[in-house]
Amino acid sequence: MAIEIEKPSSVRLSKVAISKTHGEDSPYFAGWKAYDENPYDEVHNQSGVIQMGLAENQVSFDLLEKYLEEHHEASSWGKGAPGFRENALFQDYHGLKSFRQAMANFMEQIRGGKVKFDPDRIVLTAGATAANELLTFILADPGDALLVPTPYYPGFDRDLRWRTGVKIVPIHCNSSNNFQITPQALEAAYRSAESMDLKVRGILITNPSNPLGSTIQSSILNDILDFAVHKNIHLVSDEIYSGSTFSPSEFVSIAEILRNRNYKDAERVHIVYSLSKDLGLPGFRVGTIYSYNDDVVTTARRMSSFTLISSQTQHLLACMLSNHEFTQNYIKTNRERLNKRYDMIIQGLKKAGIECLKGNAGLFCWMNLSPLLNEPTRQGELELWNIILNQVKLNISPGSSCHCSEPGWFRVCFANMSEQTLRVALQRIHKFMEQRKVCSVNR
Amino acid sequence: KVTCNSHGQDSSYFLGWQEYEKNPYDEVKNPKGIIQMGLAENQLCFDLLESWLAKNPDAVSFKREEQSIFKELALFQDYHGLPAFKKALVDFMAEIRGNKVSFDTDHLVLTAGATSANETLIFCLAEKGDAILLPTPYYPGFDRDLKWRTGAEIVPIQCSSSNGFQITESALEAAYQEAQRKNLRVKGVLVTNPSNPLGTTMSRNELDLLVNFVTDKEIHLISDEIYSGTVFSSPAFVSIMEVLKDRKLENTQVWERVHVVYSLSKDLGLPGFRVGAIYSNDPIVVAAATKMSSFGLVSSQTQYLLSAMLSDKKFTKEYISKNHKRLQKRQNKLVSGLEKAGISCLESNAGLFCWVDMRHLLSSNTFEAEMELWKRIVYDVKLNISPGSSCHCTEPGWFRVCFANMSEDTLKLAMQRLKSFVSSITIDNQTHQDLKNMRKKNRTKWVFRLSFQSFHDREQGER
Questions:
Q1: Which CATH class is domain A27-62+327-436?
Q2: Which domains does chain B have, with CATH numbers?
Q3: Across the beta sheet with A287-291, what order do the strands follow?
Q4: In the prediction, which pLDDT does B445 show?
Q5: What percent of chain B has a predicted confidence (pLDDT) above 90?
Q6: Any signal peptide, and if so, which residues (chain B) (predicted)?
Q7: Does this model's pTM top 0.90?
Q8: Which of B54, B68, B284 has the CB atom closest to A65's CB atom?
Q9: What ipTM, to 2 d.p.?
Q10: Does domain A76-326 have CATH number 3.10.580.10?
Q11: Which of A210, B26, B30, B116 measures 20 to 30 Å from A263, CA to CA?
Q12: pLDDT of B434 over the 80 cut
């Protein structure tokens, strides 16, 4: 009997194109969908889903808008636009010198002047998303591994792994010590990678941490750097939330640790930064890599061709961040407002009987709902998350999407809405907790 | 990635740039400096952009109908792109093609420049062990953009001056075989239309050949149409989309394997703004490329400015028309200037450069001689032009010379320098020839009769 031979399908796309490593099929993104379909609005849709899964900083726009009102030249190349054509033509991957200078100054100010940054070591990229991917391309080969402490930002699964072919091996952290990274956990992760025949090329930490909302202590940073030196691997410190530390004295940058060691071992250290969180400008795509390694700087610069920052935007931010009066005031005011928001949410949650990890930075808090789980499993966590999404109508991020090894933790953002909306959210949580108490009493 | 050299930045192409940087021409401050003719920039229409900006201040002050939209833009990082901008961009792309084709915003992906668009497409279509076929000569940047991080290889489709460097069926087939010989899986063909560095639009015949070839081999076709708005004389620009439409191929398999790349860097002269786009008929490619664009999104500030500008149809109509006229005028100036120096170039109707024939100035028909000549032009004549070898041209002696990145006066000066240089070589060659013949036992009369003039005439004949 003749066998029908199927015509071969047309030429396959690349493995990268059809893989799911972009991670966008996770529940994390399902929450977004629910929000998009029924978004809360103070006036038009008071029963809608409140978005608390988006780490945006909306508390300081008035400061930015005031600056723009008073400095038209930043957004318009001046009267008669003499700078327009030069700016429109500027595609040098070194980046606008004035902007790099302003960025270096801003990063110094955030760190209270405790360290200095060389503008020539700053490589510009279209956002920290690009910066992290770019560094991974440079520091590791396909099949190699990076160690990342859990819980971590879900986007890393895509940013570090998707097109690079590099793997993430988790450094497991848990609540017994407030999720701090320990030398034992580092060692265990390294051995785990070895057992899988993976070559470890570096460690990537986020400091202040997303999703924990806390800074990494000085002693731990030293341990991590020592570990990197001992294993002869790289250390990437994503300091995207450095300007969102509520109290300036509490943030210690890896740059300070290096300075304290007279920059010995610096050539393995690279810092990632962005204006998406501190300045609330994710749409402008402004990221940077700061590396103490000349080869990395040179290569990163060349690679940044694939992800340059619009010169129009570089010009705007060069003006803004060169204005010392503006930056000083902004950094200080932003911190105060975030602190106030944080206090508000923590008190509100406490009143509802919910504990959070003690935080001191970021745009979110790390909430412990493990007592509420039906079962202490990922499944139990997702069930609870579903209830919160569909009944309480709050989109928050389940710890499992952040690869947390303990179920029941959730990341809750507090800076991407008005105070009024935050109050509504807290009321809903309070009501939800009250109802659960009633239910358990009646059982 | 750090150690490999696929970024290509140590090539001669970049050395010319280095020399220019050390000693750049300036009309006032450095009139003896090196004139940059290796940069394909469009500086001819900035006045039109500036006047539009002066009339539309809201576009840069984050206002829409007097209302501030700063917060909205600052927070907008959706990789689907600003809808108003995508709409304005597809309309602009259609307008450039005489509205003979239209584009759907759902198939458009925004990227930080065509550099990013091309790389992203290759990430979607190919991987290590795969090859993309490219007609030579091609833009030197492709070596980095298509190969560096993707791991894919480029196999050239050799084109020659015998037919104006057009793509032929046999060249396509030969390239395909060559890839197989190297154990590479051919995933697609990438063409630049209009061509860089040739400055010519692809003929309908070539486009048909390409469609037939990729249909037969069941591979992809990428058409980088970054210069589509620079076509200043006939034949009119024919986009690959037009060919597919005319041949009624919309519901066939090949339709989903054709992808177009665009950018505003050349047509609008805005390379700094990083505005590129991928247009694909394959929803899977669109979906994958959209997610990948996270690594190179266009600044929302810039998307907004350009959505306002390109939505102004009165402006776009005037711009496209004036851009063509000015480019044509400028190209004519370069061509006639070269002619006066006894140099011809490939007849062109597009782009920001001419493909110049200096084979007659080579000391020998080799790439060494081309490098020798190029160095003399950079260091002695003080013009930075791009040698054909950097574009992977198979024939030595061709150079890409840009004409739209300088003032008319500067172009004039460049032509004068070139003319003097050619005269001097001719005299040198003549002197050299004289000396050679003097040493011969039998001296013939024609040696002494050879003057610059008749040597020049001989060159004319060889064009």
A1: alpha beta
A2: 12-46+316-421 (3.90.1150.10), 58-311 (3.40.640.10)
A3: A122-125, A287-291, A269-274, A234-238, A200-206, A145-149, A167-171
A4: 43
A5: 86
A6: none
A7: yes
A8: B68
A9: 0.94
A10: no
A11: A210
A12: no
